[in-house]
Amino acid sequence: MDSCTHKTPLTHKTLDCGIELGCIDLPDRHAVAMEFRFLTGTADEADGLFGVARMLQETIDLGTENFDGRGISDAFDEIGASHSGWVGREASGYSCLVLPEFVERAVELQAEFLRRPTFPAEKIEVSKELTRQEIHALDDDPQSLADKYIGRQAYGAVLGRHAMGELETVERITRDTIVEHYGKYYGAGRLVVTVAGNVRAEAFEAILEKQFSGFGEVRQSGREPYPITFDARRVHHMKEAEQQQIAIAFPGVSRTDPQYFAQRAMLAVLSGGMSSRLFTEVREKQGLVYWVSAWGENPRGDGMIFMGASTKPERCDLTYETLLREVDRVGEDLTVEELDRAVTGIVAKVETRGDITRARCGELADDLFQFGRYIGPEEKVAKIKAVTVDDIQKYLKEHPRDALSVVTLGPRVLEGAEVVSASESATGGQG
Amino acid sequence: MSDPYTLHTMDNGLRIVIERMPHVKSAAAGFLCKTGARDETPDLAGASHYLEHMCFKGSAKRDWREISVDFDKIGSTYNAFTGEDRTFYFGWVPIDRIESQIEILADMMRPSLPNEEFEMEKKVILEEIAMSKDSLDHVMFDFALERVFKDHPLGWPILGYDSTVEALTRDQLHAYYQTRYAADNLTLIVAGNVDPAQIIEMAEKYCGTWESNGGVAKRLPPAIQKGSANKVVERFNQQIVALCYAAPSGSDALNDTAEATASILGGSNSRFYWNIVQAGLSPSASAFRYDLTDCGLTILYGQTEPEGVDKLADALRKEAKAISESPVDEHEIQRVKNRRRTTLAVEGESPYHRLVQIMDDVNNVGDPRTVEQRLADVEAVTVDSVSDFLRQYPIDGEGFLVSVGPRDWPGTSSLNV
Question: Do A136 and B238 touch (CB under 8 A)?
Fold first, then answer.
């Protein structure tokens, strides 16, 4: 039986075809999870064509040299494989979950649409129409809309793009621009494949070599960080709604920074379980919110801390002040018992998620993306267990929240915030 | 394969259901209380959900702070949720902490409902209701059930209304609790790498003194309405349309056929996806089951621009008519079965997923089904069973059409907000 406390049966290598492969062989599992991650995301989109990366992902399996869209979906269904795609700021992923006996066929089908898409013109037009509607629908979802605005404000013009793009940029996307984007960014040199489950590494390598030999640019690329332009402002977006959304961002440290695990533990103290500071102080003691959270994001080589809450407009200022006060307070009166509890939560989640094959594949993919090597649960658990109260206080001292990027959205302007009109909101609100 | 279940009923009526999963290193435990929004009187709308919140707010042994601290001390992934006919409290932990997990959950099932916490939690729940009103999906779903189950408790929103939550008193909630949380209306469910005899010992230790009350009041099935209604909410950009039809209950022999039919119509690689989404009519069109112990609905649903809602509703109806008039293709059924085989294999890896599936089975059909039994039930779906289902529960006639969004469409029984 595989165990988080035993050495993980891992293969990590670059194949002749150019693909970087990570494989965790878990012979007692009943399924295989794989991810094909291209090191290209919205940050690579050409000016004026924001949304092209996602539209590429949405249409890549809607027609290939050998199948129409329905045909390839039927072929995946013949083997019971579930497959899906996503586009992020720096990467685009295609996941597949399949029974062990169908792994080879699943890779063949992944290769079919990843290598030989035809991007039928009529499907591009449909995708444009659907994206327009989704952009309108995003406006009906205040929390997602606040996420979009804080992402743009915290990360800046390159890394802060929203995957859907904007109405005017979506209009400019054509089949030609999608094909051009595909040709530039989809190739073996940017492809990292991770797989976990009941699969033998050597056999899997052979399948990949067979299916992906000669796939685009083989030279490795896409592994450099993108620039972040942090905009320390307080901006309010007017919107009719029952609740006010609050989103706060401030710079953190990267996954490779020696202080990363102190930051990770600090976030768990703030927003781990129900005994964490935000849940206790904002919700349980004052009843200000139903939802409140803090989390970290890590673009390659960097880090950002986010806090979010939604509350009725008249309680927005108090909620905002409480959120900030609680970050400061962690640096002032954190106890050993509180830290132990936060660390216990992180370690226990590593152990329970270890039972899930998909989670093992996802963890491997993230490790290869962030570190270029598999870190694995053992090393992470050891590092998080080593964090002390002094480490967190040192981290907070060296990374004070003296520059904040704040977005509020709703009917009431947060005290001291500048107001952005609806049209500015749509185009970026960058002043 | 040997039966992985241990079923046991304690002297006080508390039922215990255990699934042994020797291949995993974690375990999940939960208490199912057969109580939900449908058990409330109109003035108590939202009480079941309020009670779920209050179970985290103190017991004879712990105050609210100690409950959350003790959960976090064992590294639990924990929460609770309330539905129309059930409330479920659960925690998922590394295997060596399962006793602590069961002890904390058991303690919560005997809440003290402290007055000051009752008032504080009211504010939190009113925020939750406000958040729900900002979601087009939630507004539509609450409105649809209110109209389809007119005047039946299944029509109240699970969260309750602002007015009923504001008016609810601690004594009313305590009285409601006493009628619903007796030992014989609760089930302890455990899934993971556990020893069943030890789990039963734990249950005796932590729940043995609980009293039964001889059973709860019988639930009455709803009359399912036909017609149409819409709610104008001008601040939304998009319009949702939903067509609701009577369907078998979650305990009916046709349940898996109904699920498969919904998947063929509106799941992945479905008729809706290729004929509606890929026709550009809606970015999200789906068909899904709403299943309770004594009734069910098939809901055909889509979201679009306000001016396109007529076309979208026509397209949903056209697909419903087509599947009703011509037998489904054998390949369509096989695709559903193939997908299910994979998802069941994956869900079988995780004690948490098994816990929720067992809870669903225990609530709907009384006993748990193994992964293999679940798969066999899906394998039993045929072209003929789909036709039988659609004959018994037609989706091509008059159902209940609901729309929510900025447009006053279809304009009957409209309610402006």
Answer: yes
3-state secondary structure of B214: coil
List, for residues B53-68, the tens digit of each pLDDT value.
Answer: 999 999 999 999 999 9
Domain B5-207: give its CATH code: 3.30.830.10
SS3 B226: coil
Q: How far apart are CA A262 and CA A266, in angstroms?
A: 6
Indicate the domain borders of chain A.
10-212, 234-427
Decide if domain A234-427 falls under CATH 3.40.50.300.
Answer: no
Residue A391 has pLDDT above 80, yes or no: yes
Residue B8 near residue B343 (C-beta atoms within 8 A):
no
Q: Is the CB of B280 less than 8 angstroms away from the CB of A130? A: yes
pLDDT tens-place string over residues B279-319: 999 999 999 999 998 999 999 999 999 999 999 999 999 99
Tell me the two tokens of residue B320. 């419903």
Question: Hey, do B5-207 and B227-416 end up sharing a CATH topology, with the first three levels equal?
Answer: yes
Length of chain A: 431
Residue of B189, B6, B28 lying closest to B97 (CA atoms) = B28
Closest-CA residue in chain B for A131? Answer: B283
Residue B34, amino acid: K
**H-helix or E-strand containing B189?**
strand B186-192
For chain B, the 3-state helix, strand and coil shares in percent, each to the nearest 5, are 45, 20, 35
Q: 């001291």: which residue's tokens?
A: A416
* Positive or negative torsion for Cα A27, A33, A36, A41: negative
Cα–Cα distance list, A2 to A8, A25, A32, A68, A203 (Å): 7, 9, 14, 40, 20
Give yes or no for B58 touching A (CB within 8 A): no
> What residue ranges in B201-340 does DSSP mark as E strands?
227-232, 239-247, 284-291, 296-304
Chosen for mutation from A58, A79, A96, A133 (greatest number of chain B CBs closer than 10 Å) is: A133
Closest approach of chain B CAs to the CA of A139, in angstroms? 7
Domains of chain B by residue range? 5-207, 227-416
Question: Beta strands of A355-396 (E only): which ranges?
Answer: none
- As given in the structure block, the two tokens for residue B32 are 């199912």
Task: Give how far Cα A224 sits from Cα of A12, A44, A192, A299, Å.
Answer: 20, 12, 14, 10
CA distance B127 to A290: 6
Q: Do A130 and B283 touch (CB under 8 A)?
A: yes
Superfamily of domain B227-416: Metalloenzyme, LuxS/M16 peptidase-like (3.30.830.10)
Whole-number Å distance between alpha carbons of A371 and B32: 43
Q: Which chain A residues are Cβ-neighbours of B74 within 8 angstroms?
A: 344, 348
- Residues 155-214, chain B, touching A (beta carbon < 8 A): none
Compute the Cα dihedral for A161, A167, A170, A172 and give only its sign: negative
CB contact, 8 Å: B122 with chain A? yes
Interface predicted TM-score (ipTM): 0.94
Q: Which CATH number fits domain A10-212: 3.40.50.280, 3.90.245.10, 3.30.830.10, 3.40.50.10610?
A: 3.30.830.10
- Asked if residue A274 lies in contact with residue B68, where contact means CB atoms within 8 angstroms, the answer is yes
